[in-house]
């Protein structure tokens, strides 16, 4: 398939700038793959589509406050620094993006905090916007991380055109976030409240947790029309034995296995064996899923409504069927669904 097949007109006002008042009260469109039927319900009604011993797979990655603002030495120019990943604990080295990049060269120092208490030196250029920073901090590593993160803000995606606010610290994070390392939140997981998950437990639904540290590559523009030539950024992922046991037993019983979000789907499709069972995995993946694609593990999926031309939309179309999902997106636009990370959700059922 071609990039242009995933283009649609998304008015700016359809992109959610803020989350729903309550996590589980976003709208939910239910897409039945076998009949093509669409239902419109509230997210907490998802409970009605699952039974005892069905399984939901969640991504328990935790977003860290990756967006910092600092000032360049001498000129005082304001510089945005986006933390990507820590390269070396001992040396305090971080892989970052800087903006405006043209002002930042090797050897420059950047100052952060009202009192310039955090200082970093640029020691390498990696890409046009990428740099390696060495933070000049003498204390213990835990103390350094705490001080660094205290300066940061939640890294809202580029299509949310507003500054981060205090509420985002809680809402730009799933309630089950545990393993720190993501620079964007696995959005489908945002709809699950503690109350809803308790009700799911009471109904006998099982939970499996994997970790994929979602990166900025999820928002990177694809610059090739031929999708086979697009390369995804690598993201770190972990699938443990317990998750494998829960998922594989459900598959063997014939229960529903629901992947919550595109990061979960990419993780389990990376870690699946030739027998269709989930395998333990620790490493990196750059798996890019676009139509046509045969899925091996999940037979249900939760996802948000994604941006045009995005790799997330391509994966959802792979799972739900290109024509059915694009038709569903047209219906969502007419029915006033909210798009993006803080938007509404879709549940796709195989049968």
TrEMBL record:
<dbReference type="InterPro" id="IPR003699">
    <property type="entry name" value="QueA"/>
</dbReference>
<keyword id="KW-0671">Queuosine biosynthesis</keyword>
<comment type="subunit">
    <text>Monomer.</text>
</comment>
<comment type="pathway">
    <text>tRNA modification; tRNA-queuosine biosynthesis.</text>
</comment>
<dbReference type="InterPro" id="IPR036100">
    <property type="entry name" value="QueA_sf"/>
</dbReference>
<keyword id="KW-0963">Cytoplasm</keyword>
<dbReference type="GO" id="GO:0051075">
    <property type="term" value="F:S-adenosylmethionine:tRNA ribosyltransferase-isomerase activity"/>
</dbReference>
<dbReference type="GO" id="GO:0005737">
    <property type="term" value="C:cytoplasm"/>
</dbReference>
<keyword id="KW-0949">S-adenosyl-L-methionine</keyword>
<comment type="similarity">
    <text>Belongs to the QueA family.</text>
</comment>
<dbReference type="InterPro" id="IPR042118">
    <property type="entry name" value="QueA_dom1"/>
</dbReference>
<keyword id="KW-0808">Transferase</keyword>
<dbReference type="GO" id="GO:0008616">
    <property type="term" value="P:tRNA queuosine(34) biosynthetic process"/>
</dbReference>
<keyword id="KW-0328">Glycosyltransferase</keyword>
<comment type="function">
    <text>Transfers and isomerizes the ribose moiety from AdoMet to the 7-aminomethyl group of 7-deazaguanine (preQ1-tRNA) to give epoxyqueuosine (oQ-tRNA).</text>
</comment>
<dbReference type="Pfam" id="PF02547">
    <property type="entry name" value="Queuosine_synth"/>
</dbReference>
<protein>
    <recommendedName>
        <fullName>S-adenosylmethionine:tRNA ribosyltransferase-isomerase</fullName>
        <ecNumber>2.4.99.17</ecNumber>
    </recommendedName>
</protein>
<dbReference type="InterPro" id="IPR042119">
    <property type="entry name" value="QueA_dom2"/>
</dbReference>
